[in-house]
Amino acid sequence: MTIAYGNHAPAPTRPGGKHKGIVVCWFLGLGSLVSWNSMLTIGDYYYCLFPKYHPSRVLTLVYQPFALGTMAMLAYNEAKINTRKRNVAGYILFAASTLMLMVVDLATSGGGGIGPFIGICAIVAAFGVADAHVQVFLCWFGCFRSPDLCSEIDHKSSV
């Protein structure tokens, strides 16, 4: 095997950008965290609306399969998918899902029932798909750029 540069790899022509990358990861992580945090904090309200359906448990069980399944598909097809478009699509889906939660609540006048609960479950499934779009990008961005960025993303995910 021939090594083109001898024993040492050439120095990068434009070193730097690590701090900018950390800031970008922080803002993107904050965008996904705020959306899911809104779902967690509204749990008490949903317990008042749907006392028979255990919304905190059910919404978590609805969210996880969609998030994990979409993340697996996106990770498998990483080379075929435009990362920027996928990331933007994830944040658009987060915004649309958050808006739809408010629309469902306003349309039903805050009333309970199985219909609004199923609608909220569908919206939470969209949250899972959106989170998968965003998380795959953040993991790719951090882990393939710098070990420091990978540790920043690991810390954010564990919180």
From TrEMBL:
Major subcellular site: membrane
InterPro entries reported for this sequence: Eqnu_transpt (IPR002259)
Membrane topology: Multi-pass membrane protein
Molecular-function GO terms, alphabetical: nucleoside transmembrane transporter activity
Keyword flag Transmembrane: yes
Protein origin, superkingdom: Eukaryota
Keyword field: Membrane, Transmembrane, Transmembrane helix, Transport
Subcellular location: Membrane
Family affiliation: Belongs to the SLC29A/ENT transporter (TC 2.A.57) family.
Protein's name in the database: Equilibrative nucleotide transporter 3-like
Organism: Populus alba x Populus x berolinensis
